[in-house]
Amino acid sequence: MTTTVKLPDPLEKSLRQRCAQEGRSISEVMRDALTAYLAQPAVTASAFALGEGVFGRFAGKDDLAETHKIQVLDVWEDKQGRRS
Predict the structure, then answer these.
(1) Where are the domains of the chain?
(2) What are the distances in angstroms from CA 2 to CA 31, 46, 64, 72, 79?
(3) 20, 45, 53, 79: which could join 49 in a potential S-S bond, CB 3.0 to 4.6 Å?
(4) What gap in Å lies between CA 43 and CA 11, rounded to an integer?
(5) 65 Ramachandran zone, left/alpha/beta (phi>0; psi -120 to 50)
(6) 54, 48 contact by CB (below 8 A)
(7) pLDDT for res 83
(8) Burial of residue 1, with CB atoms counted within 10 A of its CB: 0-12 exposed, 13-18 middle, 19 or more buried
Protein backbone atom coordinates (compact mmCIF):
# COMPACT_ATOMS: atom_id res chain seq x y z
CA MET A 1 0.00 0.00 0.00
CA THR A 2 1.23 3.48 -0.81
CA THR A 3 0.38 6.43 1.43
CA THR A 4 1.27 10.08 1.05
CA VAL A 5 2.31 11.99 4.14
CA LYS A 6 2.68 15.77 4.23
CA LEU A 7 5.45 16.91 6.56
CA PRO A 8 6.52 20.40 7.59
CA ASP A 9 9.80 21.40 5.93
CA PRO A 10 11.95 21.16 9.10
CA LEU A 11 10.64 17.66 9.85
CA GLU A 12 11.25 16.49 6.29
CA LYS A 13 14.77 17.89 6.39
CA SER A 14 15.51 16.10 9.67
CA LEU A 15 14.05 12.87 8.32
CA ARG A 16 16.13 13.03 5.15
CA GLN A 17 19.30 13.78 7.13
CA ARG A 18 18.71 10.88 9.52
CA CYS A 19 18.00 8.49 6.66
CA ALA A 20 21.20 9.57 4.89
CA GLN A 21 23.23 9.11 8.10
CA GLU A 22 21.82 5.65 8.71
CA GLY A 23 21.79 4.56 5.06
CA ARG A 24 18.09 3.72 5.26
CA SER A 25 15.17 4.69 3.05
CA ILE A 26 12.48 7.11 4.18
CA SER A 27 9.89 4.34 3.77
CA GLU A 28 11.83 2.00 6.02
CA VAL A 29 12.23 4.60 8.77
CA MET A 30 8.55 5.57 8.57
CA ARG A 31 7.46 1.91 8.73
CA ASP A 32 9.62 1.39 11.83
CA ALA A 33 8.28 4.57 13.45
CA LEU A 34 4.65 3.60 12.79
CA THR A 35 5.24 0.08 14.04
CA ALA A 36 6.71 1.44 17.30
CA TYR A 37 3.87 3.95 17.67
CA LEU A 38 1.14 1.36 17.07
CA ALA A 39 2.78 -1.07 19.51
CA GLN A 40 2.05 1.38 22.37
CA PRO A 41 -1.27 1.04 24.14
CA ALA A 42 -3.89 3.54 23.03
CA VAL A 43 -4.54 6.38 25.47
CA THR A 44 -8.18 6.10 26.46
CA ALA A 45 -7.91 7.55 29.95
CA SER A 46 -10.03 10.46 31.09
CA ALA A 47 -8.53 13.87 31.76
CA PHE A 48 -8.85 13.13 35.49
CA ALA A 49 -6.98 9.84 35.16
CA LEU A 50 -4.19 11.49 33.17
CA GLY A 51 -3.68 14.20 35.81
CA GLU A 52 -4.40 12.10 38.89
CA GLY A 53 -0.71 11.85 39.79
CA VAL A 54 -0.31 15.61 40.06
CA PHE A 55 -3.58 16.59 41.71
CA GLY A 56 -2.92 17.80 45.22
CA ARG A 57 0.86 17.81 44.85
CA PHE A 58 1.17 21.56 45.06
CA ALA A 59 0.01 23.52 48.07
CA GLY A 60 -1.14 27.09 48.12
CA LYS A 61 -3.82 29.24 49.63
CA ASP A 62 -6.92 27.18 50.30
CA ASP A 63 -9.45 29.93 49.76
CA LEU A 64 -8.43 31.50 46.45
CA ALA A 65 -11.80 31.03 44.79
CA GLU A 66 -13.88 31.68 47.91
CA THR A 67 -12.37 35.05 48.74
CA HIS A 68 -11.60 36.31 45.25
CA LYS A 69 -14.65 38.59 45.05
CA ILE A 70 -13.90 40.06 48.47
CA GLN A 71 -10.26 40.69 47.52
CA VAL A 72 -11.26 42.35 44.25
CA LEU A 73 -13.79 44.51 46.07
CA ASP A 74 -11.15 45.55 48.62
CA VAL A 75 -8.75 46.55 45.85
CA TRP A 76 -11.52 48.46 44.07
CA GLU A 77 -12.49 50.30 47.23
CA ASP A 78 -8.88 51.17 47.99
CA LYS A 79 -8.41 52.48 44.47
CA GLN A 80 -11.59 54.55 44.58
CA GLY A 81 -10.75 55.85 48.04
CA ARG A 82 -7.42 57.20 46.82
CA ARG A 83 -9.12 59.26 44.11
CA SER A 84 -11.50 61.00 46.49
Answers:
(1) 9-83
(2) 12, 35, 56, 61, 67
(3) 45
(4) 25
(5) alpha
(6) no
(7) 57
(8) exposed
Coil/strand/helix, residue 80? helix
The answer to whether residues 22 and 12 touch, using CB atoms and an 8 Å cutoff, is: no
Residue 22 phi/psi, 5° resolution?
-90, -10
- The model's pTM is 0.50
Q: Comparing 74 with 7, which gets the higher pLDDT?
A: 7
User: DSSP secondary structure string, 1-23?
Assistant: --------HHHHHHHHHHHHHHT
